[in-house]
Design brief:
The complex is a heterodimer of chains A (191) and B (291). Chain A has 191 residues and is mostly helical. Chain A has helices at residues 17-22, 38-42, 53-62, 65-69, 73-76, 82-86, 93-107, 116-130, 135-145, 149-163, 177-190. The longest helix of chain A has 15 residues, at 93-107. The radius of gyration of chain A is 19 Å and the shape is globular. The N and C termini of chain A lie far apart (40 Å). In chain B, strand 5 (147-150), helix 7 and strand 6 form a beta-alpha-beta unit. In chain B, the strands form 2 sheets. In chain B, strands 2-1-3-4 form a 4-stranded parallel beta sheet. With 291 residues, chain B is α/β, with parallel strands linked by helices. The chains are: A mainly alpha (191), B alpha/beta (291). Chains A and B meet through helix 6, helix 7, helix 8, helix 9 and helix 10 of A and helix 2, helix 3, helix 5 and helix 8 of B.
């Protein structure tokens, strides 16, 4: 029985990860992090995260790819941007976590039980179809892609929305939807 | 200034009430909002999560359309659309690498972007372009006796904005005071409602909603006033979920600033689609001004 590793092993680190994150818009300043923790202190979700934003940044710099992509921090980030406006070094942790989400979705590096990538990809697929978001289509596909119990969880809200005339049953479409599809495909193929 | 209006996707569904009250108020004030023809989804947080550059490019198409159609500014009432469109505008104006990339992406779909059209939020247009003095002359019904808690959320002021403060937003305060309401200042006014993360991590997001609602109640607010469809949906439609998770009994109406403005301009609650909210504001409105 081996004891849990208390130190990082060079062979398990991916020193490319930081450059990958830095190539995203807003990711390039990650090198200048001083680990002050203003981001974590400003984060409303930090208490529920396995690694706080400050730790995530340091783990990216250390090259802990598996741990970073497997974390829950990026999926709990609500993109409120408090960290971004408060960072004394001009780092944009919100954009850093967008990069981490994006890499995780691209590499299928996320725990299959985590529903967030399914939702985000379904959102993207729905916009690919109509050019705009259509909430009933989004929720229906999302429910079937993941845990079917989730549909039950959303049912009361859906019924309420329907009763209030807030469901928008007929999708609104973009006339030149091919342009929207081309843009989505351009970036989906790129990553 | 010609305003090109970007309704945003939720205007056809979960925020039909924001859309109805926006149009009614614009008409009453004589602000010409012409819909940008063939606008598409702004990209918003879920698409940014798949690929942030893809989301920026989707917003860039809307900017290109607005320019093409001769508008000086893209106006949206949605804080999430505002955030994305502004991000696209900012990247195009200030990030040479992204500018080149967006030019290529636009040319690939037969569009050109020059970065001429500004990005504006409706609240900014009403408060700063139109101005409180002009509005005051049109107010027919003061909302005296109504205690309101303006709630701004994140994306009107963060990460970058051309009209709102990141930490201490206040654009709605002066407007609501001028309408005759008593404006209460919540420490949670710029905190996050959970946004679209409510769909994936609901149990965690209820805590954020609980804290905002609790502070509004502690202050004695009759209602919360918002300028974002996601803030409204989360605080309103999930209020019962918060109550069952926390054993609370919140029953706080969450209305759009356009709805209160409309009431003061003499429009009826029906014209402003106030019956669409989950938590009814009728009782409160009856008490204060027999609306």
């Amino acid at each position: 029985m081996s004891a849990p590793a208390e130190y990082l092993r060079e062979e398990e680190l991916d020193h490319n990860l930081i450059y990958e994150v830095a190539s995203f818009p807003g990711g390039h300043k990650i090198f200048s992090c001083q680990q002050c923790g203003s981001c974590s202190g400003s984060c409303d979700m930090a208490q529920d995260m396995d690694y706080t934003p400050r730790k995530m940044i340091e783990m990216i710099r250390a090259g802990m790819r598996k741990e970073v992509l497997g974390a829950n921090a990026q999926w709990l980030c609500t993109t409120c941007y408090y960290c971004t406006v408060r960072c004394p070094r001009g780092i944009e942790p919100t954009e850093v976590l967008y990069a981490v989400k994006s890499i995780g979705i691209r590499d299928r590096g996320v725990d299959p039980n985590n529903d967030s990538p399914k939702f985000y990809e379904t959102f993207c697929d729905t916009v690919h179809k109509f050019g705009r978001q259509h909430e009933p289509t989004l929720m229906a596909i999302y429910a079937f892609k993941g845990n079917p119990l989730r549909l039950m969880g959303f049912a009361p809200l859906g019924i309420g929305m329907l009763a209030k005339g807030k469901l928008g049953l007929a999708p609104s479409r973009v006339k030149n939807v091919d342009e929207v599809r081309k843009l989505i495909d351009r970036y989906r193929n790129k990553v | 200034m010609r305003y090109g209006y970007m309704p945003g996707c939720s205007s056809h569904a979960s925020s039909v009430d924001y859309e109805a009250s926006t149009k009614a108020v614009a008409k009453a004030l004589g602000i010409d909002l012409v819909e940008i023809e063939d606008w598409n989804c702004c990209g918003t947080a879920p698409i940014s999560s798949v690929n942030p550059e893809m989301a920026v490019a989707l917003s860039a198409r809307n900017l290109a359309l607005a320019e093409e159609q001769g508008f000086d500014a893209v106006v949206t009432a949605c804080a999430a659309c505002f955030n994305m469109l502004y991000k696209a505008w900012d990247n195009f104006a200030n990030n040479p690498g992204m500018r080149k990339q967006l030019e290529e992406a636009m040319s690939d779909i037969g569009r050109t972007l020059k970065g001429k059209a500004e990005v504006r939020h409706l609240l900014d247009i009403i408060v700063n372009d139109y101005g409180l003095e002009k509005i005051e002359q049109l107010v027919t019904k003061k909302l005296t006796g109504l205690k309101v808690v303006p709630y701004y959320g994140c994306l009107l002021g963060r990460p970058k904005s051309n009209f709102e403060d990141a930490e201490e937003p206040n654009s709605m305060d002066g407007l609501l005071a001028m309408l005759g309401t008593e404006v209460l200042d919540s420490d949670f006014k710029a905190r996050c409602c959970g946004s679209s993360t409510i769909f994936t991590k609901r149990s965690y997001m209820l805590r954020l909603l609980h804290d905002i609602l609790e502070d509004a109640q502690r202050l004695g607010g009759d209602m919360i006033v918002v300028a974002c469809p996601l803030c409204q949906m989360n605080l309103d439609a999930y209020q019962t979920n918060v109550n069952s998770a926390y054993g609370t009994s919140f029953n706080i109406p969450v209305v759009y600033f356009t709805q209160l403005l409309g009431l003061a301009l003499g429009l009826s609650p029906q014209q402003l689609a106030m019956d669409k909210a989950f938590v009814s504001s009728q009782k409160v409105l009856n008490r204060v001004s027999n609306l």
